[in-house]
Amino acid sequence: LQQRRGIRLSAPAAVQVTVRDALNQALDEELERDERVFLLGEEVAQYDGAYKISRGLWKKYGDKRVIDTPISEMGFAGIAVGAAMAGLRPVCEFMTFNFSMQAIDQVINSAAKTCYMSAGSIAVPIVFRGPNGASAGVAAQHSQCFAAWYGHCPGLKVVSPWSSEDAKGLLKASIRDDNP
């Protein structure tokens, strides 16, 4: 109706982007930018991610860059830490951050402390990523928030985005950081 009256509609000042899409964009951009970046975790490849964060990435980058893992958090976190120590830049995704407790030794004692324990000679450019905190319908097994706990572990940087813009920017900065 407004167009028939000769009123011109301008484009919106900003495009609304969901946090899910912002995280997907950040992963896509970083996978494209740096061939050392790869994503691994449960259901991140063929299923496009349990929460669709990795939607389309497996089809675009293939099995070597987007890797489905067994339900073995300690195992795939350990693989990711070793890959980071060898010069790659893994994004290790936990389906929920509650499951990071299964890999706590790798996160804290392998990833977080290595730079300090090696007097700065070994970088561990790894990102541990996943949803954290209370959510509807996921019960006690999936609703804890570990941000404060991890934030008190020397060697770890913990980010907790508030918006889509935060989510994208912080994920990109985290992937580019030489420390976990």
Automatic annotation (TrEMBL):
Keywords: Carbohydrate metabolism, Glucose metabolism, Oxidoreductase, Pyruvate, Thiamine pyrophosphate. Its EC number is 1.2.4.1. It comes from the Eukaryota. The keyword Ion transport does not apply. GO terms for biological process: glucose metabolic process; pyruvate decarboxylation to acetyl-CoA. It catalyses: N(6)-[(R)-lipoyl]-L-lysyl-[protein] + pyruvate + H(+) = N(6)-[(R)-S(8)-acetyldihydrolipoyl]-L-lysyl-[protein] + CO2. InterPro entries: PDHB_mito-type (IPR027110), THDP-binding (IPR029061), Transketolase-like_Pyr-bd (IPR005475). CDD domains: TPP_PYR_E1-PDHc-beta_like. GO terms for molecular function: pyruvate dehydrogenase (acetyl-transferring) activity. Pfam families: Transket_pyr (PF02779). Residues 17-180 form the Transketolase-like pyrimidine-binding domain. Its cofactor is thiamine diphosphate. Heterotetramer of two PDHA1 and two PDHB subunits. The heterotetramer interacts with DLAT, and is part of the multimeric pyruvate dehydrogenase complex that contains multiple copies of pyruvate dehydrogenase (E1), dihydrolipoamide acetyltransferase (DLAT, E2) and lipoamide dehydrogenase (DLD, E3). These subunits are bound to an inner core composed of about 48 DLAT and 12 PDHX molecules. Interacts with DLAT. The pyruvate dehydrogenase complex catalyzes the overall conversion of pyruvate to acetyl-CoA and CO2. This is Pyruvate dehydrogenase E1 component subunit beta.
